[in-house]
């Protein structure tokens, strides 16, 4: 989960103790976090003093008997009064390192986490980049945002970075054509490029087509602290490396789980709580989102394990390729050396046969689709055979 906390612990300008109390905001945040229960929470706009970080940790996360959350230790090289931070579940994650790239306004932080225990024989790491890019819609602001992401990508390139990476944050960008965004998606070194998990690329600003992904503003009218104008910008993001998108390093984005929390797509250019009734989250969570920040948080789920991503099963007369885990349908690409009858059977771990079908393969390459919509989330076994003779058993994960 990523969240711009809107001057958490900072009162200046139009933000005062009456309209931006960090104590009140912590109560709203507690409600939101109890609903989402994230293993990782990355944030922007929290006071540089760790006193406020610890207050959030101890009053919104480590509550109701929970004691397993911990925070990072960002260095704040840029000497900003609002900084980034990460909070994480220590029952699943260990902090390995945190460092920061200094920019003209705010650091870009990189936190390296180890996932454990995984039950795997491999060590699994996740690198969480957090950025809060320069705000504003002037050309100078765009140039500064481009400079910030260029510094990040050059650093990753020089560090030979690869593996599981996410970048989350308030990017303050209005369109995907901005150079700052292009730097992330189309950097010259293809090994370190980032990808949009939902592939909603375009002109986001004030464009109703992208209403389901807009994250600012939760308010139509300003209270001198919150931005006004309603929901019409996609400022807040999770992007991921190809390793996470494709599941090639024991960690994979689960399709269909990325969303702007509280965004129902029906409040374009309007307040989060305006008519029609927003039923995307419980009412208490909705009003907590409204009162907490002028941004909506973004959330997504990542699965850890082996047998993720694009896999091949090679037998004497055919090869199968498929994406795993499965969301709604299992798609299988078959390359056959000769015509054959392929049998596919799906069973649950108890051995109960749930699906069986034979496919006459006449062409060298063909594709089949097996519906998984009626199967509950869990682990299944797929048995594949030629001419009724079973050859391979494969674990399929339904999410």
Features:
single chain; 399 residues; Deoxyribonuclease I, Chain A; Immunoglobulin-like; 2 domains; 22 strands
Give a concise summary.
This protein is of the alpha+beta class and 399 residues long. The chain has two domains: 2-304, 4-Layer Sandwich (Deoxyribonuclease I, Chain A); 309-398, Sandwich (Immunoglobulin-like). The chain has helices at 22-36, 50-61, 139-158, 179-185, 242-246, 283-292; strands at 2-8, 40-47, 69-71, 82-89, 93-101, 108-115, 124-132, 165-170, 194-195, 236-241, 251-253, 259-260, 298-299, 302-304, 309-314, 318-324, 329-336, 340-347, 353-361, 365-371, 378-386, 389-398.
Task: List the topology elements.
Elements lengths: L1 E7 L13 H15 L3 E8 L2 H12 L7 E3 L10 E8 L3 E9 L6 E8 L8 E9 L6 H20 L6 E6 L8 H7 L8 E2 L40 E6 H5 L4 E3 L5 E2 L22 H10 L5 E2 L2 E3 L4 E6 L3 E7 L4 E8 L3 E8 L5 E9 L3 E7 L6 E9 L2 E10 L1
Parallel strand pairs: 1-2, 7-8
Antiparallel strand pairs: 2-4, 3-4, 5-6, 6-7, 8-10, 9-10, 11-14, 12-13, 15-16, 16-17, 17-20, 18-19, 18-21, 21-22
Helix pairs in contact: 1-2, 1-6, 3-4
